[in-house]
Amino acid sequence: MLAKTNETNLAQLSNSWLKSYYFTRFAVAAAWVLLAFTVAKSMPSLAAIMLVAYPAWDALANFVDARRNGGTGRGLKASLARSGFEVRCRLAARPQYVS
């Protein structure tokens, strides 16, 4: 009986964490889009920072999720590799964004 109660509490805690985690990811993405459409055109240096910062944030969020939920398998590695590749490409292309 006690084991079932502990499992239920753990599931509720995990569910609560996932809700706040996905809400935070949504809020960051929404703020990024809003910022991109409002000020990035007039501030190319901010646009360059944003183009690098978002994939870095995405990789960090994926890593935190995997560490928290024990899912450090192939899917996470592919996602981190993709995000890392995006960061490297955007850093390499940075001079064309900064005026």
Q: How many domains, as an integer?
A: 1
Q: In this structure, how is the largest beta sheet organized?
A: none
Give the low-pLDDT segments.
Answer: none
Q: Could you tell me the number of beta strands?
A: 0
Distance between the termini: 66 Å
Derived structural class: mainly alpha
Q: What's the layout of helices and strands?
A:
Elements (H helix, E strand, L loop, with lengths): L1 H37 L5 H26 L4 H19 L1 H4 L2
Helix pairs in contact: 1-2, 2-3
Characterization of the model:
The chain is 87% helix and 0% strand. It is flat, with a radius of gyration of 18 Å. 5% of the residues are buried. It has helices at 2-38, 44-69, 74-92, 94-97. The longest helix has 37 residues, at 2-38. It has 99 residues and is mainly α. It contains 4 helices and no strands. The N and C termini lie far apart (66 Å). It has one domain.
Summary of the model, kept short:
This protein is an all-alpha fold. It contains 4 helices and no strands.
